[in-house]
Structures are given as C-alpha cells and as structure tokens.
Specification:
This protein is an alpha/beta fold and 360 residues long. 44% of the residues lie in helices and 13% in strands. It starts with 10 loop residues before the first helix and ends with a helix. It catalyses: a 4-O-methyl-thymidine in DNA + L-cysteinyl-[protein] = a thymidine in DNA + S-methyl-L-cysteinyl-[protein]; a 6-O-methyl-2'-deoxyguanosine in DNA + L-cysteinyl-[protein] = S-methyl-L-cysteinyl-[protein] + a 2'-deoxyguanosine in DNA.
C-alpha cells in the first residue's frame, strides 16, 4: 500500500472552482486570501477575491502554518471536511453493487469527472479510485477465505478469470498468498477527514491499530511493518472500531471529548508499550517531557529511548504524543508536523478554559 502526499489540481481549475463556489472540491484544497489573511473552503459564500490575491493549500494546517486564519463564515476547521456529495453518492453505489466495474463512461454518466475523481482518491486514500476498487474486492475475497471459502470461489467472485491472476494480485496487495490468508488477521482501513487534513484509521477485531495523518512520512514504513512483522493483511473496509473512532474524533475536534473509549490493540516491544501507557496518562490540556516519562518508568536516563518509542506511536491524538514537549518548554518534533501539534495543544487549552469558565 503506497500512500503519497496530496497533489493539488491545476491552478486554473482551482481558480475556477473558487469563483464558481464549486462544492465538489470540498476537502480537495483550501483557498487563502493574501489581502485578508483568511483561508476558506472552495464553496465559501463570501465575496470572492481577485485570483492574483489567492494561493491554495491541500490541508488546513498548511494554511495555518503560512500565517492564515480560518474564515468565520465557512469554518474550514470544523470537522466538516467530509467527502463531498458526489463522492458519497459514488461510495454508496459501490456498497450497493460491489461487483460493478466502473468505467470512465459510467462515471461520466453519473456526472463524475474521472480525472477529478482520480485526484480526490489520490489525496484522500493514497491510491486511485480504480486501485481502491481492486483493493476493496480483494478485501472481500480475504474475508471469504477467512470464513472458509475456497480460493477458487473467492477468485471468481472477485471478478478474476484466472487463478494465477488472482493469486498475483492478492499477494501484491496483502503480502501473503491466498493459502496463508486463512491464518492472517485482516486489518481494515478507512479514510477519515479532519480539520487538520485526511487521516487513515486501521482496525482489526481486537481494536484500533493505527490512526495517522496521510502525509506522515513514516506512514508507509509503519504499514509495511504491520504487514511484514505482525502478519496483517491490509484491506479497505469498515468495522465497529472504525465507526467509533470516526465519531469520537469528530467530538474531539469539536472540543466535546477529552478521552477516547475506542478499544486499542498496540503491537510493539514491551518497552514501547510501557511508554505508550505513560502517554495515555497525560491529562487532556496538559504537557510533559521525555525526561518526566523516563522518570515515571524508573529509568531517568532513558529520555532518548523514550523519545524513540514516542516516535513509534501509530495512534496519533489517541496516544497523545503531541502533549510531550521539550524540557525548555519548546515544541519538539511531531510526526504530523509542528503546526498540527500546536493546533492540538491550542484546541485542548481552549476547551479547558471554556470548561473552567462554565464552572464558575
């Protein structure tokens, strides 16, 4: 699974979408106005600026790190960066008829521009729509094999006319052969949209295993480790844990949740799990240091080892490594980028202040 950084549409197309308030590009890019210092969604109803006064960003945090503040009218930081209507309709159609082969002609008949769809899926899923469809069908085949279905039936039900073609595609996607799939643990993934950009969530039957920003540099390595070291077969899909984290994450960004209840499963070394357990103890809205965590573990000289284990955390926000700062009070490195870390700390601090004010 190769997750790449977002690729913005051509500049002229973004200008057109901005001027026409084209909501089809919601979540694809943000518009920032140099003369006002404000950034908006493409469909914002505010008066449109001159194109020469505009620059575009793939993610809200990129706009914020460039010094822009969120528009009060369209509220681009709300957890409203959901998939646009045209994508939601398509996803529902896929769910209703998973065997349907979507050609460009069929997409156009549904009013969907194939190139725009390709760009949206590349940004938010790290793959094209058709690659996602293939991966989804293979995921269904994986589920069938896990439930005792024969490899032959799984192959033909997935639309493959030859067993060799199915085996090759299966092994390329899941890094295991279909014969070994019956003994592997499916790791289902879905894309989540947040005010800080798209994230990917992965969960197996025991709990949530990964939650990361799609542009995290170490993400591909993390997924490969889950596949190769822990034997997971990664496939698109949904389960109760993924639905729960989507709901809880939206509440968190709205300032209405301070703790996560979704079950977790944390493959890792014994020391890493000890560090992650300490991360979970950091109170909402507060911060600590690597040295303090090392002291809590009874290993005061292990600050560097704690930092390495902290960086191996696969559950952004839930295991709150963003609450770990430098001994001098400065922001330290963060896998999702320091602008996101600063945003998360501001969000929690503001929520705590509001709660304290309401208490009086």
């Amino acid at each position: 699974m190769n997750l790449q950084n977002a690729v913005l549409p051509p500049h002229a197309e973004m200008v057109r979408a901005m001027l026409e308030r084209d909501t089809a590009y919601e979540g694809v890019f943000f518009t920032a106005v140099k003369t006002t210092g404000i950034f908006c969604r493409p469909g914002c109803t505010a008066r449109k600026p001159k194109p020469e006064n505009v620059e575009f960003f793939a993610h809200a945090d990129e706009a914020m790190s460039a010094g822009y503040r969120a528009c009060l009218r369209c509220k681009p930081l709300d957890a409203a960066a959901i998939a646009p209507d045209w994508v939601q309709r398509l996803l529902k159609s896929v769910d209703a008829d998973p065997d349907l082969r979507w050609s460009d002609a069929q997409l156009l008949a549904e009013g969907i521009e194939p190139l725009k769809l390709r760009r949206w899926f590349k940004q938010h899923f790290g793959m094209t729509f058709h690659a996602w469809l293939r991966s989804r069908r293979l995921g269904i085949a994986l589920g069938g094999i896990k439930q005792g279905e024969s490899i032959d039936n799984a192959a033909f039900d997935s639309g493959y006319e030859s067993l060799s073609g199915f085996r090759d595609a299966f092994q390329k996607s899941f890094h295991i052969t279909p014969g070994r799939a019956a003994h592997s643990e499916p790791l289902l993934f879905t894309r989540l949209t947040t005010p800080l950009g798209p994230m990917i969530a992965m969960a197996e039957q025991r709990g949530l295993v990964l939650l990361e920003f799609l542009d995290r540099p170490a993400l591909t390595k993390e997924i490969e480790e889950l596949q190769n070291r822990y034997g997971y077969a990664v496939a698109p899909g949904h389960n109760g844990h993924l639905q729960q984290i989507e709901e809880e994450l939206a509440q968190y960004f709205a300032g209405k949740r301070t703790e996560f209840n979704v079950p977790l499963h944390l493959p890792g070394s014994a020391f890493a799990r000890q560090v992650w357990a300490e991360l979970m103890k950091i109170p909402y809205g507060q911060t600590t240091t690597y040295g303090a965590i090392a002291a809590q573990l009874g290993k005061p000289g292990a600050s560097r080892a704690v930092g390495l284990a902290n960086g191996q955390n696969r559950l952004a926000i839930i295991l709150p490594c963003h609450r770990v700062i430098g001994a001098d009070g400065s922001l330290t490195g963060y896998g999702g980028g320091q602008p996101r870390k600063a945003f998360l700390l501001r969000l929690e601090s503001a929520a705590v202040q509001i709660t304290e004010q309401l208490a009086f």
